[in-house]
Amino acid sequence: MNGFFDMPSDLQHTWLGLVGWHLQESLVPVLAGLLVALPVAQLCVRFNWLYPPVLWITTVLYAVPSLAFFVVLIDYTGQSQTTVMIPLALYSLVVLVPAIVDGVRSVPAETNAAAVAMGIGPVRRYLRVQLPIAVPAIFAGLRVATVSSISLVSVGALIGNQGALGNLLADAMFYHRPILAVSSVVTTAVLAILADALLVLARRLLTPWQPPGARAAARAARRGGRGAGRPSGGRPHSRDAGEGPAPALERVP
Amino acid sequence: MTPTHPATRTNPPRQDRGVFGALIVIEDVSKRYPDGTVAVDRLSLEVPDRSITVLVGPSGCGKTTTLRMINRMIEPSSGRILLDGADIQQQPVNALRRSMGYVIQNAGLFQHRTVIDNIATVPRLLGWHRQRARARAAELMERVGLDASMAKRYPYQLSGGQQQRVGVARALAADPPVLLMDEPFSAVDPVVRRGLQEELLRIQEELGKAILFVTHDIDEAIRLGDQVAVLRTGGRLAQFAPPDELLSSPADPFVADFLGADRGIRGLSFFTSAGLNLDPAPVVAVDATAKQMAKRVTPDVPYVLVTDVDGKPLGWAEPARWAEGGKTLTPYGQTFEFGRDSLRVALDCAVLSPTGWAVGVDRTGSVVGVASQESVATAIRAAHAERAVRARDAAAPGTGARGTGAPGTGARGTGARGAGPAGAARRGGAGGEAGGAPGSAAGAGAEAAQ
Ligand SMILES: Nc1ncnc2c1ncn2[C@@H]1O[C@H](COP(=O)(O)OP(=O)(O)OP(=O)(O)O)[C@@H](O)[C@H]1O
Ligand SMILES: [Mg+2]
């Protein structure tokens, strides 16, 4: 493992520095994506007709290669982290919006009726009743978005070493040090696994109200009913609220 | 709690209509959904204070729609609804809703909140302090029969019946004058449902709310309702009457059909057994001599009922065999509480008794006497006749309008529900009689025909 943690000087970062940078560059877009997705999803729940076009837009955005985004964005934001993070944030929407919409829609009709009947207004109902109950579904989406974002950051290497740990891949070739490629891949993978584990932990802490067996049951139920009449059938996001490893989005830069 | 006879034990008296004013008045209300479905068609109803009004009817007849128009979850297409004399349209919607408890099927609990926080929801919305709201919630848990140890549980950790209790407690939390209940007990098994119904009646005795209760189960309607509105498909009112009147004189074939086959038998729940002629002769204590025992036997009753020294029943014996030393007892089966249980329970006991004689006991369980199937039948005829007379009296003065008209004469219950000890008033304390005092000439006519 000699050289695993020795970073070439052109990167101007220690291994730890790269890790911190990588996390920032991948997690900030997911957070931004979440902030956008929450109100968008609420609008989609309120106005059903809005959901199909919103899904369509997020899918199209997801289909645009990051390189194409870079080409456009570089004129405005230059060869910066921002240029890398904007497409990542947009990609996260393809997972987060349906996750929140499905989560909020999964709130039982009786629960909503009870809330209305108690005189809980729409905003308070969304924040205090629907979102908390949607937490498992939202976290399922967050896990997919986070893991894929962590793996996607490496693309930033293409626009002047903005890829954090991904920059090691180019250096591995340049300096003929394969260990740097191993370091990049292994570190990224470990980060993804750790982030995922932390999200699972957070979800558990946030939802003491979930029956232990229900997660598996809910997962099985969703598998069974997936795609039936949903405009989002077969999309690359997961509605799993389950415990298994989050299925990362496959994406070739 | 006295042991509950498996047959229905619900008893008189129903409250005197007209004692309490109408808290909710539904005036000529219709609801047509955008797709053209007419869910409710020119419905007029009055829900009096301190009483249970049941809406019953087949699926899709507009029960839920009616209920939800009252708390404005659905707006009527025409007509108006008054709460305490004021049009609900003029009131702020959320304040209106918080003045009405709402209980639904499957409880609709907030799954992400503990039991105590679920119950404290409305007090918190009303701006109560957390401590005060929780204290109130704890008080309500006790009231609906939930153990305090359940306070910190989440809904998934409760049985269906317990969830439903939480639902009732949550609806009562801010002490609203009105309780709207939409098939609250339909998702639990019959035994639990029975318990919840008893509990609701008990709570109602204590709190005296104006309850509008929706169900599609006619037995539940009859058990719980002070008055029952039968709706037919299309959202039209078929009949609005106290349950005993409904059973004895359904307005039309639809209502009769909806009530089911044995409504005559079921109607007996509204007659008290106080009118029964109990025979104390065949009852002997276990320490009686064979001679004493033999004296009790008549050609009519070849058996005697043996009791212990306190008068509690032990079983039936044949004196001849008893004298020979074969001291075997035939089980006496069910007993009914004389004066408190209904004629239906007494009849059931007589039918089930191995000797054909029903055993009547007092409040302590000591035997008062026994009644044959024939004497139960005699009592039924007498009760019917008495009610027919009363119905004629009520109809004769031409008091007209239901709701204000002639409360039954004489033996009716005091109507002081909510004051008495739990269950007592509903079960018809001493001498309480059920006669329905039907408020219409049609009712009296049908009576006479019986
Ligand atoms: N939002 C709606 N749009 C159109 N029609 C509706 C709507 N809600 C209810 N209906 C129709 O109105 C009628 C009455 O419905 P409602 O829910 O009040 O029935 P219900 O008596 O409560 O039935 P159930 O016993 O099955 O609960 C039904 O025919 C139903 O199909
Ligand atoms: Mg309904």
From TrEMBL, chain A:
It comes from the Bacteria. Belongs to the binding-protein-dependent transport system permease family. It is found in: Cell membrane; Membrane. The keyword Ion transport does not apply. This is ABC transporter permease. The lineage of its organism: Bacteria, Bacillati, Actinomycetota, Actinomycetes, Kitasatosporales. It is a multi-pass membrane protein. Keywords: Membrane, Transmembrane, Transmembrane helix, Transport. The chain crosses the membrane at residues 26-47, 54-74, 80-101, 133-159, 179-202.
